[in-house]
Write the structure tokens for this entry.
Amino acid sequence: MGDKKDIKTLLKTYNQEHIVKFLENLDGTKKDILEKQIEKIDFDQLSELYENTKKEIEIKENKIEAIKYLDKDKLGYNEKNRYDKIGEEIIKNGKYAVVTMAGGQGTRLGHEGPKGTFKLDVYGKGKYIFEILTENLKEANKKYNTIIPWYIMTSKENHEATKEFLEKNNYFGYDKDNVILFMQSELPLLDLEGKLLMGKDMKIKEASDGNGGVFSSLRSSGALADMKERGIKWVFIGGVDNVLAKLADTTLIGVTIDQGLQLGSKSVVKANPHERVGVFCKMNGHPKVIEYSELPEKMAEEIDADGELKFGESNILCHLFSIEAVEKTSKEVLIYHTAVKKNSYINEKGKEIIPKEANTYKFEAFIFDAFDLFDNMAVLRVKREEEFAPVKNKEGADSPKTAKELYEKFWQKRKATV
């Protein structure tokens, strides 16, 4: 593929001739980098994704049913104890790993840099999000006399900054041989005509392929092989921004194993029928997270025999997969969702264009699309105030202010009961 003529032919075949002009104006290293980038692009996949943007979304007749769940708070002492014992054995015997998806920047928080490097103003002096997660893992290590391998998924734009930050802070006292950074894969952006965009750095503009890319990224980076070498059997996958996430929950592990399933997830009950959150359900016989916009209003308001919402289990991005489930999913191509975003680019005259309106298609896979590959999953309902304090927006809901309040209240309560 290294042949220059081949690259030009390839670009012309897929109606990307405008990139040829950029190539002709470059020399040396910059030209080599751009050529290598072009060689790695799957143009067939990209063409298909672009064609899909023009298709009307077919509204299929989907059979949507409520999914069974267990309420952690309502488990009897003996039952909870039995689940916890199963989970403890897995963690104690070094069969458990944690994956934190940390590819995002803190832009929405008004923070320059990776989201994990954001300092939450707790107890006056503040703690970094990575620091909070590290404390969570260190506590589990102490309790179960082990060291849980911690895999952190970064992105191309924040990998170096994340690595530098963790090294500078000495991994907040975590054993660095058990902290493995791997990069999320990316897909090129396309303009509304299906053309590739050129960035100021003279590289084709790409963006992370959504949190569903975690499986293929684990495989391609060698992190999955590393897990298997370490004898890992169960993998927890969560987002970086939930400062109350329990990263080593023996109950979730125990429930999933006890039910003979390959995946488990945590939910919190919806605040009201119309809260704008994705909820767990069964669709066409498979587990699924259905977006609030896709759930018919009548269904959203349905009540079960216990007076609870039938579709009230909201997804908080706390998922548990068996290593076999991770492996299986890493070989599958999940469906891609299209988002229309605003992106600057360089035109053929070398001028930077900053658009006023959305001008780009971004393609993302979501982690919950993997659930469709399985017949069932365990769902464990937990208390929002104990396990869900996301740091997403600068102000209002899910902001540093709300996360700080939840975090401090939780620890105050916990210290009082110890």
In short: The domain at 71-266+314-417 is CATH 3.90.550.10 (Spore Coat Polysaccharide Biosynthesis Protein SpsA; Chain A). The chain has a mean pLDDT of 94. The first strand starts at residue 64 and ends at 65. The chain has one domain: 71-266+314-417.
